[in-house]
Known about the structure:
CATH class of the largest domain: Alpha Beta
Low-confidence stretches: none
Helix content: 25-40%
Largest sheet: 5 strands, parallel
CATH superfamily of the largest domain: Response regulator
Strand content: 25-35%
Oligomer: single chain
Amino acid sequence: xxxxxxxxxxxxxQLLKEMILNCSAPDEHCIEEAEGVESGxxxxxxxxxxxxxxxxxxxxxxxxxxxxxxxxxxxxxxxxTAHNQYAVQAFKCSAIDYLLKPFDVTExxxxxxxxxxxxxxxxxxxxxxxxxEQFSNKENTDKQIVLKDNEATYFVKLNDLLYCEAENCYTRxxxxxxxxxxxxxxxxxxxDFLKGYGFIRTHHSYLVNIDKIKVFDKSDGGNxxxxxxxxxxxxxxxxxxxxxxxxxx
Length: 249
């Protein structure tokens, strides 16, 4: 694969290059470097990489600034960042890959493997739009989350998401207008992000959009009836918390 490393710190680029070469055959990858937005754009246009490792914050701008100037990206994108948990949640909700600094060898190998499999991804532009939305001040009803299963990529408005159900190491998303989508990630992967947009944990296996709750049925231990007609259980441990949230809505 042709790989481009874009980071304003030479030491970081050198370390990442060495790690990539150490976890694969030396002749498997052709690696070039750029130090910022302007040099990165020039290198993308001339080198035409298969994969770009892109720092979020650089001297002459951000990785987002660079990507806004690539109208139809034809490469796999892996952001590199030392950002806080909020930024990590934004990457998760857009389904765009990222690596946290300092880099972990296993995570790097996983990112390279995913990039190789998804080299023909045609949804990067739309996924970037979702990512950038997370850093904007748009209303919650306009926010989106990207869900990927084995067959398709779904761009879902949070307002259309009813609830999520844990199924072992998977999460099933129940939506208003399409069939449920099963994602190979745990419920906790999405919990912190969704809790910031009005979703509450009603049970160890369920996250619910409070705007979709129609009735709290206290019989049979407690269940929520949603506007869609779906019924979601409330655990005994969560009962008082759920009641308090609904009363303060």
